[in-house]
Design brief:
Elements lengths: L2 H9 L25 H6 L6 H5 L10 H4 L10 E4 L7 E4 L2 E2 L1 H5 L4 H4 L3 E6 L8 E4 H17 L7 E5 L5 H12 L2 E4 L6 H11 L3 E5 L1 E4 L2 E4 L1 H13 L6 E5 L17 E3 H5 L12 E2 L3 E7 L7 E6 L1 H13 L8 E4 L6 H13 L3 E5 L10 H9 L3 E4 L1 H10 L13 E5 L5 H11 L5 E5 L33 E4 L13 E6 L9 E2 L3 H8 L17 E9 L5 E6 L3 E4 L2 E4 H9 L4 E11 L3 E10 L9 H12 L8 E4 L13 H8 L14 H16 L9 H8 L6
The chain binds 5'-O-[(S)-ethoxy(hydroxy)phosphoryl]adenosine.
Length: about 700
């Protein structure tokens, strides 16, 4: 352990009582899998000297190695400026353009190489192969459209687009002008999109008329109308809605276009054929994009990412952790609507000049062999996905991968803890024993990987994300800020002790929230300009084993991770509370075999209302309208009362235990302990009647349920 952590420990206050976050855990350690020699032989990082280069003594200059992967219009003079903590500034004085770095600079050598290969969901439709030259043409033409509409550097534009090549084209066109894009996941509702339009102050919404999902051509334009309406309610007028067409020239949505407001992008493009727009040279510190994520309040957080620091960080981590080389065919099966897609479908891989595959649809459409057919046909050799997708593909088609002739050298997993058993299937059946697996722990806020091992240098261990990433100095702290030593078998809060180039710059429009959510917990001197005084609090519980590997236990705040997507408990609850009959609402996680977690909602009604009034449907509809279908609760329980403390706080861990058939723990501090038995009888008998039987939870799962909602 380094001296500064010990220093911090010495200063820590002794007042706060021990919390369940530091509860002792005695968990079985998994065995190691060494990387295959063939992989090591070709790996981008196979010489341990890289670990020394990124050792703490070389911080922050070590990150020059990442920044040097880019082309700078002006080289920076200060690597890290800490003068206004914790608003760190990286590569100060430097200037560059992200679109230039992801497109133009590859033309000289690779103009005819595929930058993007887009696979539409209908299997009989042809792939679209977009070379770097073609990407250059499309990005320039669309940048000309945006410029013509008056957009300038610093303006924000909201995108609500599905998985089509027009999405990276739109992002890169914005980046070319220094316009800040804010892409909202297409599966989110129009209402959720509207809230983000208003929060970011966007005057333009860019969307698409329709896209394929599980065999249906969905009308997506309808959501744009809802979004504009929702934004208006929050005081933000949308001047123009730009509508890409899934089939150019042919409108696939039923919703009419609004005269004067809505325009087809293919028609606008017709006036800009062959246009070339000079990339605007942006300061390294200029924002590149916003990515909204859920937190502990109802208002989503617009995580603002920088141009120079972010792009350097995703380029560096793509190179060393995903082992991307220019001649690879790389496929990340995530959606660009999430941070994973921004960093590891678009910006990282394209900055490195590789070929990035984009798939429009669901992994199991039309059957569980689809991803493997795509991999075989395109010769994909690096594959990146989430534990949810792996669980699902394993469940519906455990033997499918063996039927296809594809060979991965590297695979990545992201977004949730992966169960060792699922990991082993991924390794054996998908990796065919030839591929390394990099488990990557990180967040929307962190821009890129924070906890993960260099695949050529570290053995893999199922269920652990591995050690800290290069140049990141992770620690586990207890509630007082004292470090919990590795191998102690105690869990605590994982922090990054230092800043890194990929960290978000602030929460858009809420700088105080940025400081209070991520730094206040462990900062002891708010005037200090020494980064050592500002550990980044990630909001995840973790345990570090003797070998230094971290195992992530999940969120310690009010966030439920459904299929790798963060849903804010408060957002779900406030949506339920908008239903007239509802007096109280509490959302809790329930362990789910495929999606990791699902949401269950407990509702108490206002006096005089009965459960027969269709409340359940109303709550479901409210959540789908406010957030989207992904947030739909698995079950909604209308209960006589909520278990509460004497101060009136709903004990979420108690209802979470009921939902998961686990022991409710100590309920002596409740104001109304008698309600627990009633709820348990009601909920568990209804679950049994539906065939939802109790199942044994893993240690990680049990830990989360037992402590759920305790850290508010
Ligand atoms: C969880 C996704 C275990 C964690 C990139 C984190 C993980 C949240 C892992 C961020 C992993 C992410 N193992 N848990 N490898 N990766 N998480 O912002 O709780 O959508 O805080 O970013 O997902 O989710 P987000």
């Amino acid at each position: 352990m380094s001296e500064d952590v010990q220093g911090q420990a010495a200063e820590a206050s002794e007042s706060s009582e021990s919390s369940e976050a530091t509860i002792a855990v005695h968990w079985r350690e998994e065995g190691y899998y060494p990387p295959p020699p063939k992989f090591i032989g070709q790996a981008n990082a196979s010489d341990p000297a890289i670990l020394d280069r990124f050792a703490e003594a070389n911080f922050p200059e070590c990150f020059r190695e990442y920044a040097d992967l880019l082309e700078w219009d002006e080289y920076w003079h200060t690597t890290l400026d800490t003068s206004n903590p914790p608003f760190w500034k990286w590569f100060v004085g430097g200037k560059l353009n992200a679109s230039y770095n992801c497109v133009d600079r590859h033309l000289a050598r690779d103009r005819n190489k595929a930058a993007l290969i887009w696979v539409p969901e209908p299997e009989d439709a042809a792939d679209a192969v977009i070379t770097y030259q073609e990407l250059y043409r499309r990005v320039n033409e669309f940048a000309a459209v945006l410029q013509d509409l008056g957009l300038q550097a610093g303006d924000r534009v909201t995108l609500h687009m599905p998985m089509v090549p027009e999405l990276p084209v739109t992002m890169l066109a914005c980046a070319r002008l220094g316009v800040v894009h804010s892409q909202v996941f297409a599966g989110f509702s129009g209402g959720a999109c509207g809230g983000r339009i208003a929060d970011s102050g966007s005057k333009f919404l860019i969307t698409m008329d329709a896209y394929y999902r599980s065999g249906d051509l969905l009308d997506h334009k309808v959501k744009a109308d809802e979004a504009v309406e929702a934004a208006r309610k929050e005081g933000q007028e949308v001047e123009k809605v730009l509508v890409w067409r899934r089939f150019p020239g042919q409108y696939s949505a039923k919703t009419p276009m609004v005269e004067g407001r809505d325009v087809f992008v293919d028609e606008l493009l017709a006036d800009h054929r062959g246009a070339v727009v000079e990339p605007v040279s942006m300061p390294a510190e200029a924002p590149l994009f916003l990515m909204y994520t859920s937190g502990t309040t109802g208002r989503p957080k617009g995580c603002q990412h920088s141009t120079g620091g972010y792009l350097s960080y995703v380029a560096g981590t793509s190179k060393f952790y995903q082992d991307i080389r220019p001649d690879d065919t790389y496929w990340c099966m995530a959606d660009i609507g999430w941070i994973t897609g921004h960093s590891y479908i678009v910006y990282g891989p394209l900055a490195l000049g590789t070929t990035s595959v984009l798939y429009e649809g669901t992994p199991n459409y039309p059957d569980a062999g689809r991803p493997w057919r795509i991999a075989e046909r395109l010769g994909v050799n690096i594959f990146h996905t989430s534990p949810t997708a792996i669980r699902m593909l394993r469940k519906v088609g455990p033997d499918e991968p063996a039927k296809y002739d594809f060979h991965f050298k590297a695979m990545t997993t992201v977004g949730e803890p992966i169960e060792p058993e699922v990991y082993r299937w991924y390794y054996k059946f998908v990796g065919k024993g030839e591929a390394i697996i990099t488990d990557t722990w990180w967040q929307t806020e962190t821009g890129g990987f924070l906890g993960t091992g260099l695949p050529g240098l570290y053995a893999m261990k199922p269920g652990s994300c591995g050690p800290a990433a290069l140049g990141i100095y992770l620690a586990i702290l207890d509630e007082n800020g004292d470090p919990i030593p590795k191998g102690s078998g105690k869990a605590g809060n994982i922090v990054a002790r230092n800043p890194w180039p990929g960290i978000f710059q602030t929460i858009w429009g809420q700088p105080e929230r940025f400081v209070s959510t991520y730094f206040a917990k462990y900062n002891k001197d708010k005037d200090s300009t020494d980064w050592h005084d500002w550990p980044y609090f990630a909001g995840d519980g973790a345990v570090q084993s003797e070998d230094g590997y971290f195992r992530i236990l999940g969120r310690v705040d009010d966030v439920i991770n459904v299929a790798g997507h963060r849903l804010g408990t408060k957002e779900l609850e406030s949506s339920a509370l908008s239903v007239e009959e509802v007096a109280e609402a509490a959302a809790v996680p329930v362990v789910d075999d495929v999606r990791g977690r699902a949401v269950e909602m407990y509702i108490a009604l206002k006096p005089g209302y009965s459960a027969d009034s269709g409340v359940e449907t109303k709550v479901k509809t409210a959540i789908e309208t406010d957030i989207g279908k992904i947030a739909r609760p698995k079950n909604i329980w209308i209960v006589p009362d909520m278990p509460k403390t004497r101060s009136g706080k709903i004990m979420r861990r108690v209802i979470a235990s009921v939902s998961n058939f686990t022991d409710v723990g100590d309920i002596t501090t409740l104001a109304n302990p008698e309600v627990v038995d009633k709820i348990r009888d009601q909920v568990q008998s209804a679950k049994r009647a539906k065939g939802e039987e109790p199942r044994e939870l893993s240690e990680t799962e049990a830990h989360e349920i037992k402590t759920y909602g305790e850290q508010e």
